[in-house]
Amino acid sequence: MIYTETQKREHIRELQRYLQALSMFNKKLLYIIPDGIFGNETATAVRAFQREYGLMESGAADSATWNKLVAVYRDFLSHVPVSYNIFPSKNYILREGDDGLLVYIIQAMLNDFGKRHDNLISLNVDGAYGKATADAVKKFQRSVNLNRTGAVNAPTWNMLALTSEHDNNIR
């Protein structure tokens, strides 16, 4: 069977995707954009990977390099999940009118908490901090003995996160 140019580019792109993914977690590796071309940038990224993982620095994607690359990637994926610290700072306050990823997460945690406790309403998880979210936050704050402001500050976030973690660990 003939190895086509298209197949070759796809294999190079796959190599580049592995290198790109690992570079997001290991700053000693070079971040590259997968383009399917094995040029100087890819060779340099391969050499950085080889150096980091004790392989001969050739810049070529030989079988030892490929096998190690796949093994490191799979090993990373199988580790204990990385915790994601998302709340910006202890002085940050999220309130009605705000939107974004953090609001989605808060709404999801409130819904999760509400499934286990009768006094909370179900929210639309839409990333928009409207009146319904503020009301749910107030009910949550009351249930955990915090000031009922309807805004999420560090203490409210911490209680939401700890409550979610605790509730999920007892399932």
Molecular structure report:
The structure is a single chain. The protein is an all-alpha fold and 171 residues long. It is 54% helix and 0% strand. The protein has six helices and no strands. Helix 1 crosses helix 3 (63-78) and helix 4 crosses helix 6. It is elongated. The N and C termini lie far apart (53 Å).
Characterize the biggest β-sheet: none
Shape: elongated
Order of helices and strands: HHHHHH
Low-confidence stretches: none
User: Strand content of the residues, in percent?
Assistant: under 5%
- Span between N and C termini? 53 Å
Rg from alpha-carbon coordinates: 23 Å
Defining key terms:
single chain; 0% strand; 54% helix; 171 residues; elongated; 6 helices; mainly alpha
Task: Provide a short characterization of the protein structure.
The chain has 6 helices and no strands. The chain is an all-alpha fold and 171 residues long. α1 crosses α3 (63-78) and α4 (101-116) packs across α6 (154-169).
